[in-house]
């Protein structure tokens, strides 16, 4: 069971007419873009704005179709794990009625542009992540 010690970060993303396939469903690649748009908004906080990060891994589960009428969608982001050089963010894409349409976890790594190697997560990053942290309980 998971207990939330912080609040999810929420970002609205418009569903664009051209995002749909021939069936009228938003293409899966576009759903991943919605997650990315929400994540970019999340990472624009003052504490994290100028820090380089890279996505190391992303797993996505598509739960229900998104249609043009489903939008705008809300991307909720929570921090699931914070390590020394990386952290995991969970993205939930909700339709306009609050139904969860997709969920995805991304492992992000702090990146040193000079050495092109992982860098330690800063205190500022940890502070932002703590405000949106989901802690597992036993």
Treating each run of at least 4 consecutive H or I residues as one helix, how many helices?
2
Question: Multimeric state of these chains?
Answer: single chain
Shape: elongated
User: Helicity, in percent?
Assistant: 10-25%
Main pleated-sheet profile:
6 strands, antiparallel
Mean pLDDT: 92
Low-confidence stretches: none
Helical/strand content category: alpha+beta
Q: Report the end-to-end length measured between terminal Cα atoms.
A: 7 Å
Question: What radius of gyration results from the CA coordinates?
Answer: 16 Å
- Strand and helix order: EEHEEEEEHE
How many strand units? Answer: 8
Percentage beta strand? 35-45%
EC number: 3.1.2.-
Keywords: Hydrolase
Protein name: Acyl-CoA thioesterase
GO molecular function: hydrolase activity
Care to give the gist of this entry?
The chain has 138 residues and is α+β, with helices and mostly antiparallel strands. Helices cover 17% and strands 40% of the residues. The strands form two sheets. Strands 2, 3, 4, 5, 6 and 7 form a six-stranded antiparallel beta sheet that branches. The protein has a two-stranded antiparallel ribbon with strand order 1-8.
């Amino acid at each position: 069971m998971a207990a939330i010690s912080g609040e999810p970060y929420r970002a609205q993303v418009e569903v664009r007419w051209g995002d749909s396939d021939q069936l009228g469903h938003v293409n899966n690649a576009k759903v991943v873009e919605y997650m990315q748009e929400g994540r970019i908004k999340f990472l624009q906080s003052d504490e994290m704005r100028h820090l380089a990060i890279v996505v190391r891994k992303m797993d996505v589960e598509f739960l229900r179709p998104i249609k043009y009428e489903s939008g705008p969608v809300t991307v909720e982001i929570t921090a699931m794990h914070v390590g020394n050089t990386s952290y995991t963010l969970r993205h939930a894409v909700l339709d306009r009625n609050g139904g969860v349409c997709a969920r995805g976890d991304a492992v992000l790594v702090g990146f040193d542009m000079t050495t092109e190697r992982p860098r330690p997560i800063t205190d500022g990053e940890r502070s932002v992540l703590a405000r949106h942290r989901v802690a597992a309980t036993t």
